Prior knowledge:
- GO terms for molecular function: hydrolase activity.
- Keywords: Hydrolase.
- This is HAD-IA family hydrolase.
- InterPro entries: HAD-like_sf (IPR036412), HAD-SF_hydro_IA (IPR006439), HAD_sf (IPR023214).
- There is one protein chain.
- The protein is an alpha/beta fold.
- The protein has two domains: 5-16 and 112-232, 3-Layer(aba) Sandwich (Rossmann fold), CATH 3.40.50; 17-110, no CATH class.
- Helix content is 39%, strand content 12%.
- It has helices spanning 20-30, 37-50, 67-71, 77-88, 97-106, 118-127, 143-148, 161-164, 171-181, 225-232, and strands at residues 5-8, 15-17, 112-114, 131-136, 157-160, 188-192, 207-210.
- A five-stranded parallel β-sheet has the order 5-4-1-6-7, sandwiched between helices. It has a two-stranded antiparallel sheet with strand order 2-3.
- The radius of gyration is 18 Å and the shape is globular.
Amino acid sequence: MVIRTVLFDFSGTLFRVEPTREWLRVVLGERGMCVSEAELGEWAEGLAAAGALPGGPAPRRIPDHLAEPWSVRDLDMERHRAAYTGLAREVPLPDEGLYDALYDRHMTPAAWSPYPDAEEVLRGLRERGVRIGVVSNIGWDLRPVFRTHGFDELVDTYTLSFEHGVQKPDARLFRSACEGLGSDPREVLMVGDDRRADGGAAELGCAVHFVDHLPAHARPAGLLPVLGLVDRGPAQ
């Protein structure tokens, strides 16, 4: 089957969020708080272990009182904020306002960097006449990230879980993406880093290709195989 449409996940696929230590350092600086490197490191390690940074390390454990908010965090903006600020509050910080400030920081375009080959792959697909969509489990509008980094012109549609009230791997989210692009699922390739969530596209008959969720500098060419899959078609 010829691939005429490619859907991409956002975090860990096209973009990577800044490291937890830098995330915390920026917010502390914005609030005029001076701390030692030892304190910064201790708090950053705690936040990373808690999974408080969306797009960063996964939580090592989910506290019982956050189990329900965590399971539905990508269905709307309020639940997303509640889940992640709740995880952050597992780490005692000196200012209560830091928890919301940290959450707000992660939504800024400055907190995200594209993978080194992301632009090359998106432009290569454009040159081939392939339609491009972004399908993400997320609780906020990521479009400003794409606009700021000059990628918005390379994306035809965004299908975001919080706008549809459905989260991957539910096939309804992928179906909405396909319908929005006027695409037959059998001619669609889904590219993502989460085998469970992104693998849900296979239920519709989409081909699926996985990349590793690594820091941007550690994955310089992880997306390039997508161009080959489009050129020759996915393995049957």
